[in-house]
Amino acid sequence: MKCPLCSASSGQQVRDEISTSALSARYKAKYQTDIRHLIQTPTVQLIHCAACDLLYYQPLASGDEGFYNSLQVQPWYYVDEKPEFHRAASLIPEGAKVLETGSGKGNFARFLKKVDYTGLDFSTKAKELAAKNGVSIVNESVQTHSDKMPETYDVACSFQVLEHVEDIRGFLEAQVKCLKPGGILIIGVPSEDSYVARSFDLILNMPPHHLSRWTDTCLMNCGSLLNLKPIGLWHDTLQPHHYFDYCYSLSIHALKKWLGIPYKSLDTGILHTLLKAPAYVLGKILAKGLMPGNLPYGHTVVAAFQKPMA
Ligand SMILES: [Zn+2]
């Protein structure tokens, strides 16, 4: 086994193992989508790389168009505004030439003033919608784009995209290739240093949706692996619409620890099922106690790096 970020072959340790049939049943029940043709192995493993701290799934099996179409019908799937947009926008100077990979219909462009924006997305529908708002989207991969447009952009960014990608190293290197010397790379991902890491039954953080998980340490290691200078790392705080999720998950953890039941990211056991009702009540109560001043890290972390001048 070889790490898809740093290529280390030693220090690849299995952290969790999920039954593909249990995962498939959960996707079917929750999102009415069939994933069995996407994952051929009986289990998916979550692997930790001791060299770079990346957590990645084995097999790295991503969703196809049908899979994403079935998620897109969820009203929350494509939000117009993500908390990290504000942070990222503050790093982008006026007049910059900006490339966003996995742009959707280019919502991030609306947060930027007087920039020359290009979005990359595979969706032809996203391209049509963006064109109506005067936003330019190209339907190609960043790897293809980087061959045509090397050293072209002042900023390359992606938000909630890297964790979906099979070719992790290639995806990052292509964005760096698109940058001019001195250009800025901005990455927004779900934080593995937040409550997301220890959620229960959060199948969207598993294949074929998410294929990797990112700690602060791993993000900072990207800097040295890609020969970039770190600029900063920013966490959002827990957003109000996640208060209950956080407290519910905390309650299940507390009850399981109290009963001596080990953590499993996808637990189909009877005891886990029985604990959901008391955890729901506890979660509802605890969520009332969250307020600015005692909020933990939120869902997302943003990391920024600079490409060397020469
Ligand atoms: Zn690694």
Provide tags for this entry.
3 domains; binds zinc ion; single chain; seven-stranded mixed sheet; alpha/beta; 310 residues; four-stranded antiparallel sheet; 32% helix; 23% strand; Rossmann fold
Total separate domains? 3
Number of helical regions: 9
- Per the CATH scheme, the topology name of the largest domain is Rossmann fold
The molecules bound to the chains, other than polymers, are: zinc ion
Descriptive notes:
This protein is of the alpha/beta class. The chain folds into three domains: 12-60, no CATH class; 69-238 and 296-306, 3-Layer(aba) Sandwich (Rossmann fold), CATH 3.40.50.150; 241-287, no CATH class. The protein is 32% helix and 23% strand. It contains nine helices and eleven strands. It has helices at 20-31, 65-72, 83-90, 124-132, 142-148, 168-178, 216-225, 243-259, 270-287; strands at residues 12-19, 43-49, 55-58, 97-101, 116-120, 136-138, 153-159, 179-190, 212-213, 229-237, 297-306. The chain has a seven-stranded mixed beta sheet with strand order 6-5-4-7-8-11-10, with helices on both faces. The protein has a four-stranded antiparallel beta sheet with strand order 1-2-3-9. Strand 7 (153-159), helix 6 and strand 8 form a beta-alpha-beta unit. The two termini are 34 Å apart. Zinc ion binds next to loops.
